[in-house]
Design goal:
564 residues; ABC transporter transmembrane region fold; Rossmann fold; 58% helix; 9% strand
């Protein structure tokens, strides 16, 4: 299904009865306003002829009824419409995240973090206007048009056709003109908002690097240029919207004149009592309230369509296909014998896209149970790809990937993840306490468990020396701590999961000799009943005598066998 608006409509149909109720209440609100104006006009016109009070009682009650009902219907309409809007927003979020979750991380690598953030937040929130700004106004305007044309037709067929023509011009002519004048403005605003989000996030997270390399002025100049273009488009959009609203008002005045002249002609022919003249004219003015939002509907539709397309670009990226295997998938468990490797790759070939050269070619690896292995190689040799294959984020094109004696292709992804504890190269820490950042790995972890893994990593004494101890806030990305401390905390967080196999991606990268020694010493203290695999650009300086070493070459397919 390629039409993003059709997708939104299908999602919205879940609340179709609520939407119809809100539209009906909106119609009744405008209907009460029309009734109030028409009844008041008749009452004043009739009272000028000095009739008996008995003749005016019904109109007096009608004025009171329409005055009260308009406020009641407006309140109920806003209540139901906003309830529908919030329900739709929740529905859109669930729909988007349900499609997004299976794609992480391999199918989202093409997006910059700021762009993804914009799609997750701004684009999804733009969709909340789908009902209240796009679906409801045309529906209410259509109901008002048909009802008022029929009502005025009872006073005279020409009155009905005159009002219908003026309303069609306001309901169709003005939106069509708006489309022509605002072509691509709404979509471009959404794109600029995404680019601004990306630039701002890059600027905040990379400010130190931009400053060190003297590129901060260039970055902020690009940001200012995007901001100026965004403001210019917003200003132009507001000007067009103001012009269109004034055009609707002009059409309303034209409708008033046309109805007045038509009604006056009926009066001259004796076909229409004079007390109805003001009634018909003021009713037109009240009815055009339904057409004022329509130009804004066009602008919102453009933005919503662009936001929906940007979201569709993500959810249309299907998860990587799971290879078909004979027999039912079996869960992972300990190998059939102690000699069964915990990790095994046999003649594995993998490329991220069919047209790309393979990252791994005929690659083989065997790491025994409770073994210690270091896999080294330059950037591009496939070390991180190896982790993705083991975690089943990607599927090998050829060969077999084994974890604890079972092919990964035959296991559910959740079962694989439960066996592997991974400390990625890029460390993620939030501006929260040390305790809460560590509990990301195990939400129910007690403070005693957290202290135990920190003691293993040599971080407990340093943490308790802080004024707030484990409640100390780490700052965004853990800026309050050194690189070596963050590495050890990341390892501690991984150990908190208590997995049989641990994978550490670049645990000693970008560290000086002292910090590297502390991190490596912490790895050497890991329990002997765990399988430990370290992926690194280079070998540690000391302490690798008992470790199996695997060298991965940057040249695809040129992988040497392991050596002890």
């Amino acid at each position: 299904m390629n039409n993003p608006l059709k997708r939104l409509l299908i999602q919205a149909l879940r609340y179709k009865w609520w939407m119809l109720l809100a539209a009906l209440l909106g119609f009744l609100t405008i209907g009460s306003a029309v009734g109030l104006m028409m009844t008041s006009a008749w009452l004043i016109s009739r009272a000028a002829l000095h009739p008996s009070m008995a003749e005016l009682q019904v109109a007096i009650v009608g004025v009171r009824f329409f005055g009260v009902s308009r406020a009641v219907f407006r309140y109920l309409e806003r209540l139901v419409a906003h309830s529908v809007t919030l329900r739709l927003l929740a529905q859109f979020r669930v729909w988007f995240f349900a499609a997004l979750e299976p794609l992480a991380p391999s199918q989202l690598s093409f997006l910059r973090s700021g762009d993804l953030l914009s799609r997750v937040t701004a684009d999804v929130e733009t969709l909340q206007n789908f009902y209240i700004r796009v679906l409801a106004p045309p529906l209410v305007a259509l109901l008002v048009t048909l009802s008022l044309a029929a009502l005025y037709g009872n006073f005279g067929i020409n009155l009905g056709w005159t009002l219908l023509l003026c309303m069609l011009l306001a309901g169709f002519g003005v939106p069509i003109l708006t489309i022509q004048m605002t072509r691509r403005i709404g979509g471009r605003r959404v794109e600029l908002e995404s680019q601004l989000s990306t630039q701002v996030l890059d600027g905040v997270q990379g400010l130190a690097d931009l400053t060190v390399f003297g590129r901060a002025p260039d970055h902020f100049n690009r940001l200012a240029a995007l901001h100026d273009e965004f403001l210019a488009l917003t200003k132009k959009q507001k000007q067009i919207l103001s012009f269109q609203e004034n055009l609707v008002s002009l059409l309303m005045n034209a409708a008033v004149v046309a109805v007045f002249m038509t009604a006056a002609a009926y009066m001259e022919q004796g076909l229409l009592p004079g007390v109805y003249l003001a009634l018909l004219v003021l009713g037109v003015m009240a009815a055009f309230e339904a057409f004022i939002p329509l130009p804004g509907t066009v602008l919102q539709l453009q933005e919503i369509e662009c936001a929906a397309k940007r979201i569709a670009e993500i959810i249309d990226r299907h998860p990587l296909p799971i290879k078909e295997v004979r027999g039912a998938p079996r869960p992972l468990h300990d190998g059939d014998s102690p000699s069964t490797p915990d990790i095994g790759l046999s003649n594995v070939t993998f490329a991220y896209a069919p047209q790309d050269p393979p990252v791994l070619k005929d690659f083989s690896l065997a790491i025994p149970r409770h073994g210690r292995a270091i896999i080294t190689g330059p950037s591009g040799s496939g070390k991180s790809t190896l982790i993705n294959l083991l975690l089943k984020f990607n599927q090998a094109d050829q060969g077999e990937v084994m974890v604890q004696g079972r092919p990964v292709a035959q296991c559910d992804s959740d079962v694989v993840v439960l066996r592997l504890g991974v400390a990625p190269q890029r460390l993620f820490f939030f501006s929260d306490s040390i305790r809460e950042n560590l509990r990301l790995a195990k939400a129910e972890a007690r403070l005693e468990e957290i202290e135990q893994v920190c003691q293993m990593m040599g971080m407990h004494d340093a943490i308790t020396a802080l004024p707030l101890g484990y409640e100390t806030r780490m700052g965004e990305w853990g800026v309050q701590f050194s690189g070596g401390e963050l590495r050890r905390l990341a390892i501690a967080r991984t150990l908190l999961q208590d997995k049989p196999i641990y994978l550490f991606d670049e645990p000693i990268a970008h560290l000086d000799a002292a910090q590297e020694a502390m991190v490596w010493e912490a790895l050497l203290r890991l329990p002997a009943d765990k399988t430990v695999v370290v992926l690194s650009h280079r070998l540690p300086r000391t302490g690798i005598e008992q470790w199996q070493v695997q060298q991965m070459e940057a040249l695809m397919g040129e992988n040497r066998e392991a050596s002890d």
